Amino acid sequence: MYDIYYRYMWQDSFGVEAGYFSGSGGIMSAFVGIIAKVNHIEYNGFRTALYGEYMLSQSNRLYAKLGASANELSYDLEASNDSVKSISDRDVDLFTAVGWGIRFKSGLGMNIEYQYIPIQELTVQNLSIGMSYRF
User: Fold this and answer.
1) What's a Pfam family in this record (predicted)?
2) Is the pLDDT higher at 1 or at 116?
3) Is residue 31's pLDDT more than 50?
4) Domain segments of the chain as ranges
5) Quick check: 120 pLDDT over 80?
6) How many CA atoms are closer than 13 Å to the CA of 40, on its beta-carbon side?
7) Which candidate in 44, 81, 97, 112 could, as Cys together with 65 as Cys, close a disulfide (CB 3.0–4.6 Å)?
8) Residue 80 near residue 93 (C-beta atoms within 8 A)
9) Is 111:100 a contact under the CB 8 Å cutoff?
């Protein structure tokens, strides 16, 4: 999965983000049963979120994001009789994330983030390591 975003901070601890994310794979959260198999899962979408952070020190912070994502989910549903049905759906869903980050004096930052994004029948739970730069 990847997530590219821009964040505007209107106060020291609060801001808003807009971004694009995309990924593949994962486990369907909806029960499909023993008569079907899910393959070729792909999702992508645009997101916007409110951002808040709590400074642990001058360079370390904990943060949280809460917002919405307009996304597309597609996957193949393979039945026990070997027939394959391709499914594609678009919707607006919840976007949430929590994480820890460190910012260096150069403006470069690193973070570890857990994302929870329910996308229609799929629930994305992602742990990522990222880099950022503060202009």
Assistant:
1) OMP_b-brl
2) 116
3) no
4) 2-30+45-73+93-133
5) no
6) 10
7) 97
8) no
9) yes
